[in-house]
Amino acid sequence: MGLGGAHTGHPGDLLHHPGLVLLYEPEVGALSIAAFFPVLVLLILLSVLASAVFPEAIPPEGVDLKAYYADNARFVWTIFAMALIWLTGMDVARLSEMGLRCSPFS
Question: What residues form DSSP beta bridges with 2?
């Protein structure tokens, strides 16, 4: 069963789900640099987030991941919050561009 409907097993089924706004839009065609920039920023933030979770080098005596997380938790959660805010901004911009209201108060 797919998200909100019958799942046929085709990977493209999720792309047409009305509740999902994904980065991949095959009908868009070529992108300008200005249209690709927000996607690039998001991908960079996600790459930094993924690389910040584990230490770069592991010494011969090993690594205490609990201590490493305690030392880097603020950085990891800051990057996560930045990526979430950026993605939300991208979605709001896309919805506004489509003429949909973005505020629950309007």
Answer: 5
